[in-house]
Task: inverse folding
């Protein structure tokens, strides 16, 4: 499975961005797609996840709940992360990832990773 993230950029605090993650290859083999982020000097952390097949159940880190929305378009093999009311602390490289099995929030659970896309929020 190959993942291609896009949509990052520079935005002022309070603004919005939408990230996209296009999946290709053996996409039928994955069950969950997620977003992680890594700020300079910090560990990569979970942001949001969505089940790929049934129900489209969503999961969020507390820090983004109510501001970020993850969604999917199965026909396009694409997952989106709509980020609203952005804060300077949201500045990070954002990565999309995929896994088989049950939804999870730990980095080690995810088997497939895309390249990152930089999100910078200015104050």
Result:
């Amino acid at each position: 499975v190959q993942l291609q993230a896009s949509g990052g950029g520079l935005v002022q605090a309070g603004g919005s961005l939408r990230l996209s993650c296009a999946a290709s290859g053996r996409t039928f083999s994955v069950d969950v797609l997620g977003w992680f982020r890594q700020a300079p000097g910090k560990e990569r952390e979970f942001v949001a996840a969505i089940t790929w097949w049934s129900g489209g159940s969503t999961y969020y880190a507390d820090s983004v709940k109510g501001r970020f929305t993850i969604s999917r378009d199965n026909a396009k093999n694409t997952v989106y992360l709509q980020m609203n009311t952005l804060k300077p602390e949201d500045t990070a490289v954002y990565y999309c990832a995929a896994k088989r099995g049950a939804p999870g929030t730990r980095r080690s659970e995810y088997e497939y990773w895309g390249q990152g896309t930089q999100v910078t929020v200015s104050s």
User: Anything to note?
Assistant: The CA atoms of residues 37 and 94 lie 4 Å apart. The chain is about 0% helix and 50% strand. The mean pLDDT is 96. The two ends are 37 Å apart (CA to CA).
